[in-house]
Amino acid sequence: MDPVTALETIAFLLEREQAPTYRVRAFRTAAAVLSELPPEEVERRAAAGTLESLKGLGPKTAQVVREALRGTEPAYLERLRSEAGAGRTSGGEDLLAALRGDCHTHSDWSDGGSPIEVMARTAAALGHEWAALTDHSPRLTVAGGLSADRLREQLDVVAEVDAALAPFRLLTGIECDILLDGSLDQDEELLDRLDVVVASVHSKLRMGRAEMTRRMVRAVRSPLVDVLGHCTGRLLTGRGRPESTFDADEVFAACAEAGTAVEINCRPERLDPPRRLLRRAVEAGVFFAIDTDAHAPGQLDWQINGCARAEECGVPAERVINTWTAARLLDWTRHRTPPSG
């Protein structure tokens, strides 16, 4: 087994399981160090017991390299695969197989942990035909939100990566904050240039029900907004965070009327919206986007979480925009029409 592949696979699985960042970084750093060396030197160092003298390799990563070079699956990787398989969500496989892309991903340009190209290459390796890069907007300073100037710079980088990875498509996008009055946290001219705009509430999550309803309705009715992100803002792990309160029927009716998709967020700590609201969104007749909200490459493998919940709650596959080709998605975001039937 190729040692670099083994190290990168371990990092991927650790990211998928939300392991501490320092553990992930250890394996990604070791993989980067080895990728710069000729294979003969790696083999020579492994035989001589000097792998650990390389800056960026420690006892655990060096042991993975030695086992891979012996032609066996490293024990660390074998254990991770076993644990990951045991904890995987059941159901949703048919819908997952129909998905072509992911509308909500982050890079190290905001609060993600990996470069744009790494995220895009991982999405392609998972079988995606396309993915939208949706780093945060400027008001979310804690997440390194992008100013208009930085977003314009990012568009050039996305264009380069998109060309390099063809026929895979890397789409431009943003996760744009919904401000207190329902307006959007970025220049409208710039938002209009983007392929995909996800709009999410990140502040004043406990504002009154009527105010939050007005705030969200104004946002989803904007012709610039394509997807309503993690609508309740809840967090299920750690200290947790309760759901925001709003009139779900009114918000989902506005989404249906405007043709704005409701996101089924796949992050394990979000799984938003909860099942009771997801079923009401189905009844409202909205489109859906099953998105990972990935902040690391391994998290791009989380779509099964949303697919299982979608199937359980009766989401029709034909109303899931991730099942569309990039061309159809881009036509829809430019000339968005409500669902029919």
What layout of secondary structure does this protein have?
Elements: H1 3-16, H2 21-35, H3 39-48, H4 59-69, H5 75-86, H6 93-98, E1 101-105, H7 116-125, E2 130-133, H8 148-164, E3 169-171, E4 173-177, H9 188-193, E5 196-200, H10 209-220, E6 227-228, H11 248-258, E7 261-265, H12 275-284, E8 288-291, H13 303-312, H14 326-334
Helix pairs in contact: 1-2, 1-4, 1-5, 10-11, 11-12
CATH topology of the largest domain: TIM Barrel
Number of strands: 8
Q: So what's the overall shape?
A: elongated
- N/C terminus separation: 52 Å
Query: Any idea what the CATH architecture of the largest domain is?
Result: Alpha-Beta Barrel
> Going by CATH, what is the homologous superfamily of the largest domain?
Metal-dependent hydrolases
Q: Give the count of helical stretches.
A: 14
Radius of gyration equals: 21 Å
In percent, how much strand structure appears in the residues?
A: 5-15%
As a percent range, the share of helical residues equals 40-55%
Q: Main beta sheet: strand number and arrangement?
A: 5 strands, parallel
CATH class annotation of the largest domain: Alpha Beta
What is the mean predicted local confidence, pLDDT?
96
Which ranges are low-confidence, i.e. pLDDT below 50, for 5 or more consecutive residues?
A: none
Listing every helix as H and every strand as E from the N terminus to the C terminus, the arrangement reads HHHHHHEHEHEEHEHEHEHEHH
Number of domains: 2
Derived from helix and strand composition plus strand pairing, the structural class reads alpha/beta
Strand order of the largest sheet: 4-5-6-7-8
